[in-house]
Amino acid sequence: MSRIDGSASQSEAIHILGGGAIGAPFSVFLSRAGTQVRLVRTSRGDFHPRSDEITVDTPFERVSATVETVSVASLPARIGLVVVACKAYANPSLAKVLRSRVVKGPIILLQNGLGVEKPFIEAGFPSVQRAVVYATSQAKGQDRFSFRMIRESPLGIVAGSERALLASVATLSTPFMPFRSEPDITPEVWRKTIINSVFNSICTIMEEDNGLFCRNVAAREVAEAVVGECVRLAAVRGVTLAEEEIMDSILSISGRSTQLISTLQDVRAGRPTEMRFLNEELARLAGCNPRVDMKATSLLAKLVEAKVGERSSVD
Ligand SMILES: NC(=O)C1=CN([C@@H]2O[C@H](COP(=O)(O)OP(=O)(O)OC[C@H]3O[C@@H](n4cnc5c(N)ncnc54)[C@H](OP(=O)(O)O)[C@@H]3O)[C@@H](O)[C@H]2O)C=CC1
Ligand SMILES: CC(C)(CO)C(=O)C(=O)O
């Protein structure tokens, strides 16, 4: 059963779109909490639904669950709550697929970056929420992941009701990945986008793990330059953030994560990156009126692009 305000009923399966480093562990955490989950492999063609045992190593314990895994083609005609955990460049095609179904529950995005919700808003979905995920996760093999929660992830409304938001927080929170309702998600999205613009570009260019900023003063100085530029851009756009607080978050994440940032993994695997939602989007906004100087942020995007180009000319 679904309700009129876009909150999903407890009896409906949650569909998690994207079975990668975030989506697969999330499906395990929810399954372990007794929630019915279906993991949807968004990059895969049609295949028969199957049940996979997925294992997640957290710093405290190893958790496993058998999760029903389906392809996009197997999405039912009526769907309740949808979690989007694939790479953000897949959103336009997913919004199109969801448009061909009746989506009763909210669509909840777990992705990094600015503007990732646009395809779902433009497609007219009435209930869209965004989480800003404070966790690091990496695939360690077939159906095996290493996941570390950093802190509670804020979840807020892009479109829809507060009642639906509170229901989502209650449904999705587990001790492994807790959420909290956030009345104004925009500053949270900017804060995390700035953090990602630092990690995803600098760690990728240097081919270093997330711990880089705690051990390398020069990398930290470049991070400070990016944060300074981005905070000035945010201010011009009406979002007030504090440079020091963002640098503290970067150093706190860096001190607790030795994982490889997804952009570096993507470049190495010859996959597209999400830079268009991070440094590139910030640089694009900085070029609009009123203009803001974003040299460091945009040059880092160019270096990642250069690295992608180098890789593809070698392969
Ligand atoms: N990893 C992390 O620590 C964190 C990641 N995030 C964000 O979470 C989101 C998911 O990242 P993560 O799980 O790490 O990524 P992964 O690379 O591990 O997984 C990528 C997912 O995107 C899907 N995908 C990739 N390319 C396409 C495509 N062309 N069309 C459709 N689907 C595609 C894959 O499909 P399939 O299901 O078929 O494999 C897979 O589910 C990203 O937006 C990322 O920024 C946020 C915080 C932390
Ligand atoms: C900033 C960081 C490393 C942690 O949340 C992240 O978002 C990611 O791994 O994609």
UniProtKB/TrEMBL annotation:
<feature type="domain" description="Ketopantoate reductase N-terminal">
    <location>
        <begin position="14"/>
        <end position="148"/>
    </location>
</feature>
<protein>
    <recommendedName>
        <fullName>2-dehydropantoate 2-reductase</fullName>
        <ecNumber>1.1.1.169</ecNumber>
    </recommendedName>
</protein>
<dbReference type="Pfam" id="PF08546">
    <property type="entry name" value="ApbA_C"/>
</dbReference>
<dbReference type="InterPro" id="IPR013328">
    <property type="entry name" value="6PGD_dom2"/>
</dbReference>
<dbReference type="InterPro" id="IPR013332">
    <property type="entry name" value="KPR_N"/>
</dbReference>
<dbReference type="Pfam" id="PF02558">
    <property type="entry name" value="ApbA"/>
</dbReference>
<dbReference type="InterPro" id="IPR013752">
    <property type="entry name" value="KPA_reductase"/>
</dbReference>
<feature type="domain" description="Ketopantoate reductase C-terminal">
    <location>
        <begin position="184"/>
        <end position="307"/>
    </location>
</feature>
<dbReference type="InterPro" id="IPR051402">
    <property type="entry name" value="KPR-Related"/>
</dbReference>
<dbReference type="InterPro" id="IPR036291">
    <property type="entry name" value="NAD(P)-bd_dom_sf"/>
</dbReference>
<comment type="pathway">
    <text>Cofactor biosynthesis; (R)-pantothenate biosynthesis; (R)-pantoate from 3-methyl-2-oxobutanoate: step 2/2.</text>
</comment>
<dbReference type="InterPro" id="IPR008927">
    <property type="entry name" value="6-PGluconate_DH-like_C_sf"/>
</dbReference>
